Amino acid sequence: MNKENLLLYFIMGSNNTSQPPSQVLKKAINGGITCFQFREKGSGALKGKEKETLARELQSICCKHKIPFIVNDDTELAISLHADGIHVGQDDESIQELKKKCPSSMIIGVSAKTIEEAEEAERQGADYIGTGPMFMTTTKEDAELPIGPEGIWALRKQGIQLPIVGIGGINETNAVEVIEAGADGVSFISAISQADDPEKAASTLKDRLT
Length: 210
Ligand SMILES: Cc1ncc(COP(=O)(O)OP(=O)(O)O)c(N)n1
Ligand SMILES: Cc1ncsc1CCOP(=O)(O)O
Ligand SMILES: [Mg+2]
What we know:
Layout: E1 8-12, H1 21-31, E2 35-38, H2 48-64, E3 69-72, H3 75-80, E4 85-88, H4 95-101, E5 107-111, H5 115-124, E6 128-131, H6 150-157, E7 164-167, H7 175-180, E8 185-188, H8 190-193, H9 198-209
Parallel strand pairs: 1-2, 1-8, 2-3, 3-4, 4-5, 5-6, 6-7, 7-8
The structure holds ligand LCLJCK34, 4-methyl-5-hydroxyethylthiazole phosphate and magnesium ion (MG).
């Protein structure tokens, strides 16, 4: 993956917004996001056919605008849709398993916050790591305590070369700190999905970072 694609990485599922997800995604793309992750998870999340239908709808929007479409957690869905990538956490399927099942062109993102996790992700051939939570977040039900941008500094200081995306509680006022700490990109859910004007929210974030 081109690491420039990680700069403004938007993540959303149907329960992260009160607006139609397809509308939010289109507005976010108009505002300048560079990557999208479909994360259909948590209370009220769609399942089965409904989940797949929404995934296909959002994928086709991404495809039309040449925005990488990454699926969170659900390897089978990612493979069946020929998604551009899959993102997994430490408690999800291992990179080793993913490498066996997925086409070699598929982007593999892994959550990693300790040096051990990041080094293991590098060894196993991940394409990028997602590190966080950077700041307090209420979006992820089982989020751990924030580690702050210092967590990214620490990984860089210890020699981690993989592209890093910060995640968790990132908004227009703190995004720059995350990049300054050594991240290649910032990912966010609520800063865009909960905004009254998702296009403006995305373009403001972009202005802060470019
Ligand atoms: C870009 C990015 N980074 C981290 C995560 C978190 O993944 P995970 O730890 O598996 O938690 P869930 O998102 O599955 O609840 C992410 N999704 N994306
Ligand atoms: C999925 C995830 N992983 C760590 S924090 C988080 C939630 C990010 O959501 P928000 O950008 O609204 O804080
Ligand atoms: Mg996960």
